User: Fold these one by one.
Assistant:
Number 1:
Amino acid sequence: MKNLTIRDFDKKIDSSSIDSFLLSRKESHNHNYYDSPEWFKWKFLDSPNGTAIMPTAFDDKKIVGANYYGIYPLLKNGLEISAILPYEAFVHQSAQGKGLFKNLIKLAEQTAQDEKVHIMMSFPNKKSIQGFKSSGWTYIPNSVTYWLKPVISFKVIKNILDLKKAFQPNKSTESNNFQFGEPKHNLYKDQIHGLWSKEYLNWRFNILPQAEYIHLQNKSFEIVARIGSRGKLKEAQIIYLDCKTVDFNRKPFKKLIKQLTKVTSSDLISFPMSSHYPIYEKMKSLGFYKLPSGTQFCYKVLDDKNLSEELKFSLCGLDFHTY
């Protein structure tokens, strides 16, 4: 590799390199499938929040590394905060050991600063954490908890050891037509959380869904769950919750969970979240059990204007599940 360069992907001149991105990504993650150019365009270029920040490593015109971040506005006490969230990160095996990933992080930070981004977030694997820490990122260990509510049945008891297996989401077979309401963003106090919009939810879950999802709502709550399995146990994993009322009402929430269990015939209902999620302290009394999560979280503040020293990130599956 004699012509390695790192620069931001330019959709006007680099479209011919998308196929090489898809191949390098497949081989880097050891996937047994290719994503499509349609997926690339949907995920990185067509979000209603704006085109992703896309630092890319090229070997001539072949893409051998990427560290892409999606535009992901946050909200804190009514203040909108410009932020970005990781969309993709890899360095192909043929290009490793050359310091590419660290340089891709640096370019992402530089581009983010140029675009007036205040906060960068990432959910790295454990092997990558030290690289982020050495680049000035703040790492919050054990920041995400996996809350699990099992259905008491012979099947669950018989396959109890499957709880140790990883959750595997079902693949989507078609687009969705979920009718979302405009998010109310109730319950939050001084936490930092995603500033989701109806357009964003439609883009994320309807246009090109990356898993099997279900959308349910009543007068008090609206949820989206991923459907999958943990060994022989079927699981519905709540990744989005919006409370339509000012206060959290336990009764309609429990009814919605019961409906989710029945409609999906699930053995397990799960709800991963950070310790600053508004209903975290209520989960045990709602019948959920706390399990450790392998999700790691770190962030970097690029501009601390209007931000307090203590940042309480309210995170849920909508934030940290890849797609």
Number 2:
Amino acid sequence: MGLTEYCLEAGVERLTWLTREKLYNVAIAVWETEPLGRPWHHEVDNDTYIPATSKIDITALTKQRATLPNPNEAVSFTYRPVGAQYRKAA
């Protein structure tokens, strides 16, 4: 849901990405998603990936919020930049 909200705020209307096959079903349940090619098996991690594109819109956000106990309540989160756990405190 956070990704969808960010994209809406930033004006991003589509995401093009590579998803693990087991997460593709989650993606199609959340966003209008289309595969961009055939699944690809990666020998190193023994996992299968699917290239896909997903439409980001208010319908997707509404669908995601409907899964919350209180869909109109603000969802709080803590943002921590990548690598923040490695920085020394000032």
Number 3:
Amino acid sequence: MRHALAFVFLSVAAGLPLAAAAQGSPPSYEPQKRLRTALDTCLKTEVMQGAYCVQKCATGFRAAASGAKPACVATTAGAKHVPKKPTYTPKPEGSPTPPAYGAAGGG
């Protein structure tokens, strides 16, 4: 009981609503990032964060500025992030492989 009262007191002192303190942390995810070169600029779907271009957060999420790693934190209770699926499809078995660059027989 004493620990519970201390937790409630610290939550109120920190300015956190009791409901948020009881639920734990909101849903979050780490957005994709890529290292930016000297001559490279970030795309329209990215924001610059240090030496990296970081993907903008999905709808219902905001960028968390604290910490070394970029993070997107939910702003609404029901926010969900569905990562994009790759569109790459492998070649069918038995398809010819092009010769390597500079291989014998090339032009």
Number 4:
Amino acid sequence: MVLVKALGMMDIVAGVLLLLVSFHVVSSWKMGAIVACVLIAKGLLFIRNVVSVIDVIIGVYFFVALFHPFVVLSVVCSAHLCIKGLFSLLS
């Protein structure tokens, strides 16, 4: 149960960081790359779930967004991560 809450918090942090990177508020590509790797690793760890495949896709997009963000896609991906994280915290 604690692992679910921790992974939910990581999703929320990743969603907020994706927005901050996309709007050029945070310019640290190292922190973004670490979060993208965590998303991809978490997605590959639970690959049998469809939502985890979406995490891998968002993780790959996170790498792209570090250099060429698409704001609308970043908002959609960030909303997905934050909502998923909130559901994890509330469960």
